[in-house]
Amino acid sequence: MGLPGHRRTSSHKHRRAAHFALTAKNVRLCPKCNKPALPHRACASCGTYKGRNVTQSIVVKKINTVKKTKKVAA
Ligand SMILES: [Zn+2]
Questions:
Q1: What separation in Å is there between the alpha carbon of 62 and the centre of ligand 1?
Q2: Which residues are in the CB-under-5-Å shell of ion ligand 1?
Q3: Is 28 within 8 Å of 37 (Cβ atoms)?
């Protein structure tokens, strides 16, 4: 079984931990529902991106692909 070759001193640990800090997320407000949302992503609460609903189109596309695969299999 492998063993550590050298003692890890407290300064070694602290130098490594200097990069562990978390950065705050850049949050903007959704122009439609005014709730906080991440930039360049569809709003999690209303599902709009650039003024149009994108989650609805994803659901429709998924249903269409399921129908197509069923037709091919049958
Ligand atoms: Zn929204």
A1: 22
A2: 30, 32-33, 43, 45-46
A3: yes
